[in-house]
DNA sequence: CCATGTAGTTAGGTTTCCTATCTTTGTGGG
DNA sequence: CCCACAAAGATAGGAAACCTAACTACATGG
């Protein structure tokens, strides 16, 4: 039975669930910002995400199947999205001789312009982060990578290009720093990548 | 031209955007988890969110209009969602004499059971957070509240029940701790609320 | 050269949202 | 006490975001 006029029990939710609630808010903010941007640009949210993705990723990732896995959508949905973007003249398709079923996506000049603009949609989220001190940023980054790594191992996020899931990565352990066998150098915490272009996934036995 | 091998500036130049990218991943994880849960329970994502919301919020917030603002959706969408949940027997409507246009939503016994189960959907996100040390949790929480506060002030998130936007809140400043004039007590960082049932928004002049 | 697998498309349907329009009710000047 | 206006919610109609399933075309390895 309650004795307090305020429901202290509910209010004093554990710190962990408050953190989850906070993440939920931030996630919501992303959705809202993306939605707003989509109205401004006259594109759907997924169209914008594809354009932004194409801005920064290498050839073997610029394909329908990869995009479907990346965004947890069916190939049909992506195929549709690509068709629309193509009709709008924002994309070009490059067919390679070694596999004519598939093609690589490129942004047209207009597409690149739009993508650059779209990429600013998360500005409102970046601003408060810019204001943190370097140490705060590094700790925040470390915690986020830890969470993402866990989510990846739990199978929630299918595709990953983080150092922690890369076969070139040698774990930080027993006082040894993070190390990349491709770059052949030790990495500071803040140097770990979230979206490495050279990422080569570890084979996972499930 | 940069010559130093310890070019910290360069190394950390993109740390902010890496953090944003990491948040984006976590946001994606929420979407995926909610989607999965919706398939398991045979409810839509928004239906689940409404059920969970009703589990913890007070009468004046359990209304169509409030829910629409809460989730950044139109009243029509929420109205529809409520109709479906009602038809499934998960809700009950309470009409008050002082305003018969509106009604307050309550979970039925079955609805509450479902909501309890649905609320576990974020478990995968909570797990890695549980493993952080108390200090890490506190810093993470502080950084998240700072970001959310900024998003709120930037108008991205319309509804807020955080201490930082509450009229009972007296700011942490000049060595003074956070303070709540309703509870009449000082609050530790970790005691700040993300979703306070007693929240009374500050009037904002725009 | 056939069997099997893979890349992408298409068709068709469901769900999720919106805008616009309505009905009903509350409210605050004249 | 009206009447204009606002506010709560419902409804209709439509766009688009998704899915599954079936299909075409090509690759690849016995």
What descriptors fit this protein?
11% strand, 8 helices, 206 residues, homodimer, mainly alpha, 3-stranded antiparallel sheet, DNA-binding, 49% helix
Tell me what the structure shows:
The structure is a homodimer. The first copy, chain A, has helices spanning about 10, 15-40, 45-55, 65-70, 75-85, 110-120, 125-130, 135-155, and strands at about 90-95, 100-105, 170, 180, 185. In chain A, strand 3 and strand 4 form a beta hairpin. With about 210 residues, chain A is mainly α. A three-stranded antiparallel beta sheet of chain A has the order 3-4-5, with no helix packed on it. Chain A binds a DNA duplex (30 and 30 nucleotides) through helix 5 and strand 2.
Give the helices and strands, then pairings.
Two copies of one chain form a homodimer.
Chain A: H1 8-11, H2 15-41, H3 45-56, H4 64-70, H5 75-87, E1 91-96, E2 99-107, H6 109-118, H7 123-130, H8 134-153, E3 169-170, E4 178-180, E5 185-187
Antiparallel strand pairs in A: 1-2, 3-4, 4-5
Chain A binds a DNA duplex (30 and 30 nucleotides) through helix 5 and strand 2.
| Amount of helix of chain A | 40-55%
Shape of chain A: globular
Number of strands of chain A: 5
**Tally of individual helices of chain A:** 8
Write a short abstract of this structure.
2 copies of one chain form a homodimer. The first copy, chain A, is mainly alpha-helical.
